[in-house]
Amino acid sequence: MAVYVIGDVQGCYKSLHKLIKKIGFSHADDKLWFCGDLVNRGPQSADVLRYVMDLGSSAKCVLGNHDLNLLAVAYGDRESKHSDTLDNVLEAPDSAELLDWLRFRPLLHRSKKHKACIVHAGIYPSWSVGEAKQLAREVEQVLRYGDYRTFFCKMYGNFPVYWDKKLEGWDRLRFITNVMTRMRYLEISGALELDIKSSPGGQPPGYKPWYTFKSKRKKSYRVVFGHWSTLGLHSENNAICIDTGCLWGRQLTAARIDKNKPTFISQSCRK
User: Fold this and answer.
1) Is residue 8 classed as helix, strand or coil in its secondary structure?
2) Residue 70's domain spans which residues?
3) What is the CA radius of gyration of the chain?
4) % of the chain surpassing 90 pLDDT
């Protein structure tokens, strides 16, 4: 059985279909894990959602910031941006089914068998993988069974910037969500910085990529993430970024992670 992790698809269904054929995916034998951002900015978000949903138990997908943005527009008071392409989902005849399926996706998926986990943006350095999984569940419980409409109204914002176990309510849930779906850089002090999107080397002094910090995560545990197209395919400290900018006309990448040394397969994309 092969396990492939695929980076940010963002509505690029044709590129996804070509990549699936290239890796020789077997629905009966293999697994596909998706690093989030299935939707938005690309032209065929609804088709991507239908495809992954129809994979059933053969697929795992975590939520990304664009997935949450879609849900916030659908259920909260969020308005679409000019660059959003969400109508493809919101006006689909099966919109309710697609949105409900997406709302039940996790923020983090962990496999003890493969000593790996997938998350859209990253794991805060002071969290072990186990702690991150438990914190992700707090958000997932609200999304699935709680007051998710209010959550989508309270979700946006860059504060708080520091983790504290004593955080409560929407501040606690917002921090967890920001880490797992928006994080790229941290200040040297550990404060979240959520506006810088440049590749490492282009950031202001005093900021470092989250995966370069001393981490509570076991070194043997691999984290595969997306979200950072300017970083591209990058592996450091057993953290692997596979957002290779399909939406921007570069590539859509799959990482095979069921072996000790991951291998990468990419499909060229049209902008």
Assistant:
1) coil
2) 3-268
3) 17
4) 97
